[in-house]
């Protein structure tokens, strides 16, 4: 069966994007064939170049006017992964890729989700609330921030001397460990469903 082609959307450093690329290059179950970025200065573009993965930079207008959706279609993309992408995905892409777009959020949703809650802002809020646990949530994307169906969660304990930075490090370690494997499992289910429906 042909490998499903993955597009990874990222806006910044891209360490998760790189981790996902390397995972699928080794596993061979799917391939990251495109990295899409809305920030021309993002370090993820250097990572893409080093990995020999094509990367495309686009602006907000191109995201909204169908240019990015056409790019996904033209490249035969079958699955979309968000890895630190800081723009809302337009409904047209969400609908076309229903149950084929996943996102990772650095908290245990529904806590500390929603518009404006990303990165260090999440860890600072978790710390300020004196939570005993944080973690990651991997979920399908829908039209509303961080409200898609949850696929997977994993927790980490927060201890007395933790800071927002140490919480972030624990959560990031979970992202590295779990995100590629969960993506792989979701794609495997997708392939099985497609095979059954043929």
From TrEMBL:
GO terms for biological process: 'de novo' IMP biosynthetic process. The active site is at 105 (proton donor). It catalyses: N(1)-(5-phospho-beta-D-ribosyl)glycinamide + (6R)-10-formyltetrahydrofolate = N(2)-formyl-N(1)-(5-phospho-beta-D-ribosyl)glycinamide + (6S)-5,6,7,8-tetrahydrofolate + H(+). It is an enzyme of class 2 (transferase). GO terms for cellular component: cytosol. Keywords: Purine biosynthesis, Transferase. Its EC number is 2.1.2.2. It comes from the Bacteria. The record marks 146 as: Raises pKa of active site His. (6R)-10-formyltetrahydrofolate binds at residues 61, 103. Pathway: Purine metabolism; IMP biosynthesis via de novo pathway; N(2)-formyl-N(1)-(5-phospho-D-ribosyl)glycinamide from N(1)-(5-phospho-D-ribosyl)glycinamide (10-formyl THF route): step 1/1. N(1)-(5-phospho-beta-D-ribosyl)glycinamide binds at residues 14-16. The keyword Kinase does not apply. Belongs to the GART family. This is Phosphoribosylglycinamide formyltransferase. It comes from Candidatus Enterocola intestinipullorum. The gene is purN.
